[in-house]
């Protein structure tokens, strides 16, 4: 790699910590690469992207009304002796069309923000936390809530205290719906006893089955969001934590509540709880809050999450010294994420010259837009962005499980995936390439001191400007960060 150390650090700051270089960005970072990154850390968090001004509560109310109208249409059709679907439309396709109205524009707005922002380290930091606390659109009832969830619960807190971020995401309506918490009822609660009396004994004369305790949210908080699978908890802790969370639910459509998220004391499992060796007194929502606060402060959480941060930014197998630095900053500051971000920027392990991270499809698409100035604009680009990311294997807002999208290279670097990347690169290059006056200058501005002589030669020898741009986007230097 050519250039002096500061030039290389500037390229690393923009392409590894950020989301890929826009025109002039590496030059802007070259004076003080670390200071340039730290200037993007701010108490108010990351920018929100446009969601049409609608909150998650408004989106969910619209979804409830849509479902109510669909149900009424089916009932009307059945009453007339006709199609039980009502209008005869495919209900699945009708639901998908409803979802696309909001979710598609959220994806476009989020991608446009990433492609144009001048604070790409701040945006990458926010994207890390959104993936850590995944809510996926694979469920119809959460599909239109993912955008507002990220704006309301994640982005405002990404440089604040981890405990505040944890509390915001776990009590957001999108998370409660995604992990089925809204239906969880304490088996010995007043609500369960009332439901049992109404249901009566089972057909075989056995007592009524207890109302459903759902452990999904408790399990994912422990396994994925805080202490990690090796954090020292057992199945009994999951069950106890799930009991503490009972009562946390959503307001019913006709319920006179100012907020969508409510706490129903009659559904809360009575009694004290013991989670990971600590006893929590009987109570209401304060019981779950106390457990969350202790999980946020647990040293296992610092180790688990700091390892994920190091893995995301630096290497699939993160250097132990880097994890230790981040963990030290976390524990010393009480989980102040701004201090952790500063420790990441200051860590020498984060500035290794050789790039060790392979870009995810979203990172590849966004960095391609940033390099070429081809940020998606206008409604017609929404389907194109969705189609491109879906074709590359990373469906927008569609992580396959609560674990989120993988950070490691293996899922993204298969030969067929590279072919699809080439197709995207060729398509984008065909659109923007004719307007690129000097592909060699574009390559230098995009990769800076990371541009290898071999890549520069291949781009210089391209037969056309579109071909040169496509080659740039497919260089090993561009595919890695």
Description of the structure:
The protein is mostly helical and 481 residues long. The protein has a domain at 181-213 and 228-297. Helix content is 56%, strand content 2%. It contains 24 helices and four strands. The strands form two sheets. Strands 1-2 form a two-stranded antiparallel sheet. Strands 3-4 form a two-stranded antiparallel sheet. Helix 15 crosses helix 16 and helix 16 packs antiparallel against helix 17. The longest helix is centred in the N-terminal third of the chain and has 26 residues, at 91-116. Residues 202-210 have low confidence and may be disordered.
Features:
single chain; 481 residues; mainly alpha; two-stranded antiparallel ribbon; two-stranded antiparallel sheet; 56% helix
Structure class: mainly alpha
Q: What order do the SSEs take from the amino end to the carboxyl end, as H and E?
A: HHHHHHHHHHHHHEEEEHHHHHHHHHHH
Radius of gyration: 25 Å
Total strands: the figure is 4
Low-confidence stretches: 202-210
Helicity, in percent? Answer: 55-70%
Offer a quick outline of the entry.
The chain has 481 residues and is an all-alpha fold. It is 56% helix and 2% strand. The protein has 24 helices and four strands.
């Amino acid at each position: 790699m050519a250039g002096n150390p500061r030039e290389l650090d500037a390229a690393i700051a923009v392409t590894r910590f950020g989301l890929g270089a826009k025109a002039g960005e590496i030059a802007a970072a070259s004076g003080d690469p670390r200071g340039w990154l730290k200037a993007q850390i701010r108490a108010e968090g990351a920018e929100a992207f446009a969601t049409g001004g609608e909150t998650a509560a408004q989106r969910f109310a619209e979804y409830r009304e849509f479902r109510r109208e669909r149900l009424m249409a089916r009932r009307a059709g059945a009453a007339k002796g006709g199609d039980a679907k009502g209008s005869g439309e495919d209900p699945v396709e009708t639901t998908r069309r409803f979802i696309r109205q909001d979710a598609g524009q959220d994806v476009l707005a989020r991608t446009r923000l990433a492609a144009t922002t001048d604070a790409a380290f701040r945006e990458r930091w926010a994207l890390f936390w959104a993936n850590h606390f995944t809510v996926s659109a694979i469920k119809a009832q959460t599909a239109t809530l993912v955008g507002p969830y990220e704006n309301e619960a994640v982005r405002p807190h990404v440089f604040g205290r981890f405990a505040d971020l944890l509390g915001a995401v776990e009590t957001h309506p999108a998370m409660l719906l995604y992990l089925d918490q809204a239906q969880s009822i304490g088996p010995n609660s007043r609500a369960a006893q009332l439901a049992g009396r109404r249901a009566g004994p089972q057909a075989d004369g056995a007592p009524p089955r207890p109302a459903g305790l759902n452990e999904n949210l408790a399990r994912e908080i422990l396994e994925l969001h805080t202490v990690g699978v090796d954090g020292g908890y057992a199945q009994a802790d999951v069950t106890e934590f799930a009991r503490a969370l009972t009562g946390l639910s959503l307001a019913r459509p006709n319920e006179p509540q100012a907020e969508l998220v409510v706490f129903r004391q009659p559904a809360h499992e009575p009694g004290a709880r013991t989670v990971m060796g600590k006893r929590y007194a009987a109570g209401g929502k304060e019981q779950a809050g106390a457990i969350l606060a202790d999980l946020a402060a647990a040293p296992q959480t610092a180790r688990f999450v700091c390892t994920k941060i190091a893995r995301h930014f630096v290497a699939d197998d993160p250097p132990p010294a880097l994890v230790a630095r981040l963990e030290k900053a976390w524990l010393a500051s009480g989980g102040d994420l701004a201090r952790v971000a500063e420790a990441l920027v200051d860590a020498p392990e984060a500035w290794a010259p050789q790039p060790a991270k392979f870009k995810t499809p979203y990172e590849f698409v966004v960095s391609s837009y940033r390099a070429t100035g081809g940020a998606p604009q206008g409604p017609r680009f929404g389907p194109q962005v969705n189609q491109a990311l879906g074709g590359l294997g990373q469906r927008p807002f569609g992580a396959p499980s609560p674990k989120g999208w993988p950070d490691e290279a293996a899922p993204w670097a298969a030969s067929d995936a590279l072919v699809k990347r080439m197709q995207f690169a060729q398509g984008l290059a065909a659109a923007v390439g004719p307007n690129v006056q000097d592909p060699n200058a574009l390559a230098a501005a995009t990769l800076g001191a990371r541009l290898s002589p071999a890549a520069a030669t291949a781009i210089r020898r391209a037969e056309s400007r579109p071909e040169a741009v496509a080659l740039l986007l497919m260089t090993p230097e561009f595919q890695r960060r």
